[in-house]
Design brief:
- The protein is built from 6 helices and 8 strands; from the N terminus they run ααββββαββαββαα.
- It is α+β, with helices and mostly antiparallel strands.
- The chain has one domain: Jelly Rolls, CATH 2.60.120.
- Strands 1-8-3-6 form a 4-stranded antiparallel β-sheet. Strands 2-7-4-5 form a 4-stranded antiparallel β-sheet.
- The chain is globular.
- The relative contact order is 0.21.
Length: about 170
C-alpha cells in the first residue's frame, strides 16, 4: 500500500487531511511496468489516473495521423516524467470515458499506482470535501497543461509560417 508520506507530496492530493489520505490509500493499486511497456496508448479509452512513484516515463504524441507502419518515427516526445516529482498523468480517466490524448511509455522499469473512476467515485461519495479538493487540483493541473500546449502550438505555427515564407 502506498505510504501516507508519499501521498502528502502528490500535487492532486494537496489540501487533503491525513485522515482523508488514509481513506484514499486502499483505492490506489500498484502496478509494475517493464522498460518499453506502454502505460497508456493514445486514442484508447481508460478510466484510471496514474501516479509514478518509481522510474521514468516518456509522454509521446503521434504526429502523423493514419500512418501506423512506422509509429516509432512519427512520435514526438512531449515530456519525460520521473519519480522525483511524483507526477500524475491520465487524469481524464477519473473524469470520464474520454480517449487518451497521448502515449505514455516506461523509459525504465516503473512502479505506478492507479486510481480508477469507480474507486474514486466510491471515495467521493463518503468524502465529498476531499473529492472536491482532488477534482479542483486535477482541474488546475489540466489547465496548466492546456496553457503549455497552447504556447507550444503557437511556437510550432510560427516556425511553420517562417519556413513557408522563405
Amino acid at each position: 500500500m502506498i505510504s501516507l508520506e508519499i501521498l502528502r507530496k502528490v500535487r492532486v492530493f494537496t489540501n487533503l487531511e491525513d485522515a482523508e489520505l488514509e481513506l484514499l490509500r486502499p483505492y490506489l493499486l500498484m502496478r509494475k511496468y517493464a522498460k518499453g511497456d506502454y502505460v497508456l496508448k493514445e486514442n484508447t479509452v481508460g478510466d484510471c489516473t496514474f501516479l509514478l512513484v518509481k522510474g521514468t516515463v516518456r509522454v509521446t504524441k503521434d504526429l502523423v495521423k493514419g500512418y501506423d507502419e512506422d509509429i516509432a518515427n512519427t512520435q514526438k516526445v512531449l515530456a519525460t516524467l520521473s519519480q522525483d516529482f511524483l507526477p500524475t498523468f491520465g487524469e481524464n480517466g477519473i473524469l470520464g470515458q474520454a480517449p487518451r490524448t497521448a502515449n505514455v511509455l516506461a523509459a525504465t522499469d516503473c512502479e505506478i499506482f492507479t486510481l480508477c473512476k469507480q474507486d474514486f467515485d466510491a471515495f467521493a461519495k463518503n468524502n465529498p470535501k476531499a473529492a472536491y479538493h482532488v477534482m479542483k487540483n486535477i482541474a488546475e493541473v489540466l489547465s496548466q497543461r492546456l496553457n503549455t500546449t497552447d504556447e507550444n502550438l503557437v511556437k510550432l505555427a510560427t516556425a511553420l509560417y517562417i519556413a513557408v515564407q522563405h
